[in-house]
């Protein structure tokens, strides 16, 4: 069990680093969007390359942060059943979801995404528009890479749930404290009232 916990810590540290570094891409996205809007609106210059760059940056931002969002429980959950059952049942739901849904889905997307990227690379695929960005295969590589990151997150989460279900009480406490420290839900955040700080 200690080995699983250590593997989870190692994968989590890498995924958190990737997520935090990738989050800075949002600034580049905002700069490109603002520049594109200003040049189109005031200088009447439309640029297909800028618009394509916007969705390329957005795709990288989204795909590379998926794993981070999953690890930090920052993704959208529609919990119709999970919140109404015992903690142990919640752990089983998460473990089964990882093992039978998320991990296989990631493997399928990685497999077909890598093939999609490889065909694009071999053909040196360009944008459909003559004024679009060249080297379409670069952005297509983001799909399998992003899902590899999500797969690592899912494997790490499965390790956590195994430790929480079958580990010793002290190991369970370590995982529980770590999860509690890194997860902040919106319903737990106290918002200032009437301009208070």
Pattern of helices and strands? HHHHHHH
Mean pLDDT: 86
> Span from first to last CA?
44 Å
- Per DSSP, the total helix count is 7
Number of strands: 0
Q: Uncertain regions: pLDDT < 50 for 5+ in a row? A: none
Strand content: under 5%
Helix fraction, binned, reads over 70%
Topology, pairings included?
Elements: H1 2-23, H2 25-41, H3 48-71, H4 87-122, H5 136-140, H6 142-166, H7 169-182
Helix pairs in contact: 1-3, 1-6, 2-3, 3-6, 4-6, 6-7
Task: Give an overview of the whole structure.
The protein contains seven helices and no strands. With 197 residues, the chain is mostly helical. The chain has one domain. The longest helix is centred in the middle third of the chain and has 36 residues. The mean pLDDT is 86.
Outline of the structure:
With 197 residues, this protein is mainly alpha-helical.
Key words describing this protein structure:
197 residues; mainly alpha; 0% strand
């Amino acid at each position: 069990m200690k080995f699983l916990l250590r593997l989870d810590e190692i994968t989590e540290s890498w995924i958190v680093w990737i997520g935090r570094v990738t989050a800075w891409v949002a600034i580049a996205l905002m700069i490109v969007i603002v520049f594109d809007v200003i040049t189109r609106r005031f200088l009447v210059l439309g640029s297909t390359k800028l618009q394509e760059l916007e969705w390329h940056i957005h795709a990288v931002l989204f795909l590379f942060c998926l794993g981070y969002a999953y690890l930090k429980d920052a993704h959208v959950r529609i919990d119709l059943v999970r919140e109404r059952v015992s903690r142990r049942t919640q752990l089983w739901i998460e473990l089964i979801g990882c093992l039978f849904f998320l991990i296989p889905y990631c493997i399928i997307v990685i497999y077909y995404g890598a093939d999609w990227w490889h065909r694009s690379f071999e053909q040196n695929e360009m944008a459909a528009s003559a004024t679009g960005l060249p080297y379409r295969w670069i952005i297509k590589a983001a799909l399998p890479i992003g899902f590899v990151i999500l797969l690592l997150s899912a494997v790490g989460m499965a390790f956590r749930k195994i430790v929480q279900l079958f580990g010793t009480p002290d190991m369970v406490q370590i995982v529980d404290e770590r999860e509690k420290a890194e997860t902040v839900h919106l319903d737990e955040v106290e918002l200032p009232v009437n301009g208070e700080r």
